[in-house]
Specification:
The chain has helices spanning about 5-10, 20-70, 75-95, 100-115, 125-145, 150-170, 175-195, 200-215, 220-234. By secondary structure, the chain is mainly alpha-helical.
Length: about 230
């Protein structure tokens, strides 16, 4: 799913009788999220916290609202009561998701990558681009649990840029090739900015990787020694 399609899906849940609200959301929401995605590209490690809250609020808000719509199809004032209750559930999900930090990080990274990457792989076909986007999202999500700082910086710089140009392509009518090239260039600029801003945290990650690599170096010697001991016994 393209990021712009995700926005349209959210807007589509506004009932038909609130046509003015729906039109207003179609005009304002893409630009608000456009600013957020640009901030994500250049300051992703900070803005990432907002995306985690946003996605978990959406999970807690949209899922119950869909269930209520499907089961009861509320109208008028009853609908707004349901919206308020579902919004309360969304807030609870956003707040308490912090207690499952690794799950929160995994899901947020997966969603960000999955809704931003497939549209740039559309030349492979819809099914292949979606499948490949999901696989890339899962890989990035798994790596983000192990290497939080560097993976958050990489995923936010590229996802932020990709989501931003998804919006610009649909709102401004950018040609797909210009959208793709521009998104990649801006993503690398965002990556450079974030690496500079978060350089101290990246040093810690580098030291962690260096220590892990150094701990693996003695393994061949230990293995060779163990084999020699076994051969002597034999």
């Amino acid at each position: 799913m393209e990021f712009y399609e995700f926005i349209e899906t959210v807007i589509s849940y506004i009932p038909p009788e609130f046509e003015k609200l729906s039109r207003l959301a179609e005009i304002i929401l893409p630009w608000i999220l456009g600013i957020c995605t640009a901030a994500t590209c250049f300051f992703g490690h900070t803005v990432h916290k907002l995306w985690k809250a946003f996605f978990f609020f959406d999970i807690g808000f949209i899922v119950p609202l869909i269930a209520v719509e499907a089961l009861f199809a509320p109208k008028g004032a009853v609908f707004w009561v349901c919206v308020i209750i579902c919004a309360g559930i969304g807030v609870v999900c956003a707040v308490y998701s912090k207690k499952i930090f690794r799950v929160q990080l995994f899901i947020t990274t997966l969603i960000m990558v999955f809704i931003s990457v497939p549209s740039y792989l559309s030349f492979l076909g819809d099914s292949v681009s979606v499948l490949l986007g999901f696989i890339i999202g899962v890989v990035c999500a798994i790596l983000s649990i192990k290497y939080k700082y560097i993976m958050v910086i990489i995923t936010t710089s590229f996802s932020g840029s990709f989501m931003l140009f998804d919006i610009l392509e649909n709102v401004l009518g950018l040609p797909h090739i210009i959208k793709t090239i521009s998104a990649i260039i801006i993503a690398f600029i965002g990556l450079a900015v974030q690496c500079y801003v978060e350089r101290e945290e990246l040093k810690e990650t580098h030291e962690h990787l260096k220590n892990a690599l150094n701990s693996l170096k003695p393994l061949p010697k230990k293995l060779k020694t163990k084999l020699n001991q076994i051969n002597r016994r034999c």
